[in-house]
Amino acid sequence: MVHFLRAARLASAISRQPPMVWPQQQRKLHLAPPFLLDSYVPRYQKLGARDAALKRSKAYAHLRNCNLCPRLCGVNRYETTGMCLVGEKAKVNVIAPHFGEEPCIQGHNGSGAVFMSGCNLRCVFCQNHDISHQRNGMDLTPEELGEWYMKLQTVGNVHNINIVTPEHVAPQVALSILHARELGLNVPIVYNTSSFDSLASLELMDGLVDIYLADFKVWEPRTSRRLLKSDDYAATAKESVKAMHSQVGDLCFTGDGIAKQGLLIRHLVMPGREHEGVEIMKYLASEISKDCFVNIMEQYSPRAHVGKKRRGKDGGSKTRYDDINRPVNDSEVASVREAAEEAGLWRFNDAPKHDGFAI
């Protein structure tokens, strides 16, 4: 009887409240409509036989005349390698359940992470230098790769297959997903990319990828040339992110809080480069979507070439890239976050501020 009276009083109080409205500037719930899904079927499961065959054909064509990134090496990957140092087979460094920086992706069981070796960028601060800049790992055919997806799904019981640094092996990834589909794969595919992709490779992945987990690293061409060894990374990233969003839209979840489809942008705040992060946030809000889900990361920890001694006789005791050889500070991170909010972005990869609901 007591519980009934409490429920009656609560219902009466709710009935006296004005109708709830969700203006753009007041929405706070990531799991509010239209970002809440009743159920989800991976996009590759909906692909028809004809479209799947066309994707296989395009994948083989890309390998014969490589145009997978803006470097446009044009090499025959069956015979040699390009800038990425990877040929016909995918070189894989780690395959395991993984718990990373985005809880909405990893959930309680983790992602089935597949870390690819090789990379089409040469970031001087790369935190995965041993994987991305070197050819460590095992060579796998697309069929073998797809079979590993199945092991992660059946043995690891993971929420999704998270393919890390796939830009240079997009054809192999496409073929592996199609093969795994035939074997019974039924979890979403996460394409964890630097955004240094060609539009041709993203077109190949359309219909196969459910979540694009995309970096947006820097904004200025001079920073790109110096730190990424790319003439104009931002120009490519802008086109790539726009193409990704057009395919999968804003990040959507099922009721368990696990992301199933959409775009999630990551920006690693770098020391002395917070003004570039500000411009990136403005671009996302104005050109992609104010509902874009963003992870502003503060865990910059340089490796690769940063802090190493300069080469040559004149190097002496000086170290390389001294200006970025330090952690970011709170004010640098805060300035990027403030700019994001001022631009209208509101969906951030923040830790929950409560443990649940209480009445």
Characterization of this structure:
- InterPro entries: Aldolase_TIM, MJ0674-like, Pyrv-formate_lyase-activ_prd, rSAM, rSAM_sf.
- Keywords: Iron, Iron-sulfur, Metal-binding, S-adenosyl-L-methionine.
- The protein has eleven helices and eleven strands.
- β5, α6 and β6 form a beta-alpha-beta unit.
- The longest helix is centred in the N-terminal third of the chain and has 16 residues.
- It is globular and about 55 Å long.
- The relative contact order is 0.13.
Secondary-structure topology with pairs:
Blueprint: H1 2-15, E1 36-37, H2 49-64, E2 90-98, H3 103-106, E3 111-116, H4 129-132, E4 138-140, H5 142-154, E5 161-164, H6 170-183, E6 189-193, H7 199-205, E7 211-215, H8 221-228, H9 233-248, E8 252-254, E9 259-268, H10 274-288, E10 293-297, H11 330-343, E11 347-348
Parallel strand pairs: 1-8, 3-5, 5-6, 6-7, 7-9, 9-10, 10-11
Antiparallel strand pairs: 2-3, 2-4, 8-9
Helix pairs in contact: 2-6, 5-6, 10-11
Pfam families: Radical_SAM (PF04055)
GO molecular function: catalytic activity; iron-sulfur cluster binding; metal ion binding
Cofactor: [4Fe-4S] cluster
